[in-house]
Amino acid sequence: MKEEQANHEKFLRFRAEHPVFSYDGYDIARENGDIVLSWRFAVEGLCEFRPVTRVKTDNLAIFNAVDGATARAIVFSLGLAEAVSYWKCACPPRFALRCGDLDADTALWWKRLWFGGLGEFFYRNGIETDFGGFVNFDNQSGFPAPQPGGETFAIAGVNLIPVGGGKDSAVTLELLRELREHNLCFTLNDQEARTQTAAAAGYGPERILKTYRAIDPELLKRNAEGYLNGHTPFSSVVAFLAYYCALITGAEYIVLSNESSASEANTADGDVNHQYSKSYGFEQAFREYARRFGPPIEYFSLLRGFSELQIAARFAGLPQYHAAFRSCNAGSKRNVWCRKCAKCLFVYIILSPFLEPEALAGIFGGDLFEDETLFGLLDRLAGLEGEKPFECVGTAAEAATALAMTVERRRAAGRPLPPLLRHFAESEAMKAPRVSLAAYDGENSIPDRFKKYAKEMLDYVAGLA
Question: Are 156 and 63 spatial neighbours (Cβ–Cβ below 8 Å)?
Fold first, then answer.
């Protein structure tokens, strides 16, 4: 509580000392074959920020102008998604737009994204604010924001598939295997697990569009000095960057791998969702926003109708990906599972009903169910006590279902229960209602031509029920 109080006091002090954050400009350039996107932000009286993102164009066929009117409108919007990471260090109450003015509806759209995406940041820092007052968009440029031009868009019949290196994108790649010649993998800040996952699906380097996003070191300096830090809606950055890449490559579809449970909040009041910009609400909002750009590009999640439990069940049956995938943020740079975080434990839990114990431990480099230091995390993941961890994890019902299935499976096989499973087996959650493998959430935006792949997925997992 003392730290939260101190952070709220910082929030008030920094806002008073630095009342204006500005978006001063953006640029699209070519450099050594790369497309270089850059933005100019400033916290007045503190510092300037110059973040850069590179789009690698090696072996990349370009079908539409990389710096035309529509491309510039997208990159300007991408800057608004990037800006929140820099604004949050001091949380100035005014956001001065100096490179394009927003109409009232567009400003409201961005304010909703920022507020929803900053819910965890405010909550965990103990910051008390509200939608009306946390920031106000202030048009100062004297001219409208960049608008899409009257271009004719070339369509290359490409499906752009973001690959994060986890089980979800692996399942999407497998479901769309018959479309391999039309698929283009998309990675942001490429890591070994992402390239290896794509390779396991049959994609070589020439079928991976790689982008690299660099945080301005000035932000890291401010964090080291005690300015505010925390979670932002990062997936919205991925959405706009993927849309820009879809434009230039002539892609018709951006095929995500976000599950139904990404829409669940972390707090009991439903106000804070770590995965806000992976939620179906954001997916719908982005689809609506993207229509103004003009290109016939559809943004949707192929796995939106499924739970984490169902995705894990399908992934377990794809051993070609088991050595490649990684979902641990703490160990991502070293391409390892840390075996101590909520993400590691959740993925271990959710796969446990569908893999033999030896195979599961082999993937992770150890048996997480033997680690008694993880009791607290298991309780939070399974809804036994405390709030859902602020990580990209599924629902408590999914975790509890997976644990109950694993307990029953190991008992039936005459195997002794390791400490974490024994702990869960003695809880009331062992008797709680189960998540069905045969369920399907119809609240999704899957285009008609992709529905057969969702049906293939449902038929497979329902057959395991």
Answer: yes
The count of other CB atoms within 10 Å of the CB of residue 133 is 8
Q: Fill in the amino acid letter for 413.
A: A
Question: DSSP state, 389?
Answer: P
Tell the residue number behind the tokens 């391999």, with chain if given.
180
How far apart, in whole angstroms, are the C-alpha atoms of residue 82 and residue 237?
A: 6
Predicted confidence at residue 102, as pLDDT, reads: 97
Can you tell me whether residue 181 is helix, strand or coil? helix
As a whole number of angstroms, the distance between CA 302 and CA 445 comes to 8
Amino acid at 23: Y
Q: What are the tokens at 65?
A: 């102008």
Counting beta carbons within 10 angstroms of the beta carbon of residue 19, is it exposed (0 to 12), middle (13 to 18) or buried (19 or more)? Answer: middle
Please give the helix or strand (H or E) that residue 161 lies within, else none: strand 158-162
Query: Scanning the structure block, which residue is given the tokens 């179906």?
Result: 280
User: In the predicted model, what is the mean pLDDT of residues 421-435?
Assistant: 94
Distance in angstroms (rounded) separating the CA atoms of residues 285 and 375: 38
CB atoms within 10 A of CB 365: 10
At residue 40, φ and ψ (nearest 5 deg) are: -125, 115
With beta carbons less than 8 A apart as the criterion, state whether 294 and 69 touch: no
Which pTM value belongs to this model? 0.97
Three-state DSSP at 182 gives helix
Widest Cα–Cα separation across the chain: 74
CA end-to-end distance (rounded Å), the chain: 45
Residues 6 or more apart whose Cβ sits within 8 Å of residue 454: 175, 302, 305, 306, 440, 444, 446
Query: Which tens digit of pLDDT belongs to each residue from 85-96?
Result: 999 999 999 999
Q: Reply yes or no on whether the pLDDT at 73 is more than 70.
A: yes
DSSP-based three-state secondary structure for 390: coil
Distance CA 88, CA 78 (A): 17
* 3-state SS class at 80: helix
Number of Cβ within 10 Å of residue 146's Cβ equals: 18
Residue 328's pLDDT band (boundaries 50, 70, 90)? very high
